[in-house]
Amino acid sequence: MTDSSTTDSGTEITTLATPSGDTAVEVTGTGTRPAIIADATSRHASVPIQTRNERFTSADVRDFPEVTGREASWKLTPVDRLGDLIAGALDGNRYDYTATEVDGVDVSWVTRADPRVGLAGIPEERASANAWTRFEGALAITLSGEEHREATIGRDAFGSAPKAAHTIIEAKPFSDAVVILDNSGPAHLSENVEILVGDSAKLTVVTVQDFDDDARYVATHFAKVGRDATLKHVVVSFGGAVVRVNPAVTLAGTGADGELLGVYFADAGQHLEQQVFLFHKAANTRGRVNYKGALQGAGARTVWIGDVLIGPDATGTDSYEQNRNLVLSEGTRADSIPNLEIETGDILGAGHASATGRFDDEQLFYLRARGITELEARRLVVRGFLAEIVQKIGVPALEERLHDAIEVELAGGGR
């Protein structure tokens, strides 16, 4: 006997009766949920996901089960502090922003029907899908022209009520630009950012999280990089009670290059999280992932998960990811989990690394032996540790501002 039904997302579920009387369930259609099968030992055993890009995706929050905190993508996140962003009602209306006026940079609101919506990626988890379901209009930043351009989008008016947002950043073929999403002020926000990098374009996207102390922010950045194009994606997280920014970058065109950078500084009680996914889909692509963070103060917590997948067609790939954390005081915790999957044997190289530790005593001794106080020596070590990432942004004014922010964090002593 066969029985069929269809979910809201268009996934067809077919139940088949076996000769033994058990049932086997086959899942087909637009969804990518793992199939449920039955055997002699388990009537409903889930087929495990084989690779990182096989996770279920949907733009409809109703297609996702309730988040319990035991899921792979949520088990290190304080879900009890993000409940309304994950599953509650969100205000998806437009918000006020400021933007520098630059030739070749268009910033405007577009509707959900804009053909670019969904081209870079589709949500893999419920908070992202909740924001996608609720947003009323997307802020579109369109970049054109071969001359180098820099644009800053100031966003400090999200407010304290639960809110959804959607942002599109499109770099036209052969364009060259830097876009800074400068986030500050109060926020209780779930956001999706789609980044489309056209063939032979060169784009840097910097997202700065400098929110108020009680802000809660979860965001997924989807990026699709075209042939011979370059994307530098930088996550800077200093302010906010809970900040979770998850970049998912697909090197879709032959010769695409992706550099994913991050710098963060967690104080007492702060939770700063990044779950990074770099997918080498096309041949001859290059990827570099480098995140660095510092922690000080009781209850300071950081989470970094780095997934790199080299697909079966990504021959000639050159990829490396690493995460480094510097612990400045007792009572902190840094989780660092690098993962690497390779589905072809014809690559140039791939690797990953992770380290979390305290001050290097030899460095401190070297500096103190030259008359530098311990406090100043510690400041110099931390600034030098994080400067490797900051100086790669390529925007001097922003780099200096971030150096000053690090000084402020150190002066605060984790309070």
Automatic annotation (TrEMBL):
Residues 1-22 are annotated as: Disordered. SUPFAM superfamilies: Stabilizer of iron transporter SufD. This is Fe-S cluster assembly protein SufD. It comes from Naasia aerilata. Residues 1-21 have a biased composition (Polar residues). Coiled coil: none annotated. Residues 164-385 form the SUF system FeS cluster assembly SufBD core domain. Pfam families: SUFBD_core (PF01458). The lineage of its organism: Bacteria, Bacillati, Actinomycetota, Actinomycetes, Micrococcales. It comes from the Bacteria. InterPro entries: Fe-S_cluster_assembly_SufBD, SUF_FeS_clus_asmbl_SufBD_core, SUF_FeS_clus_asmbl_SufBD_sf.
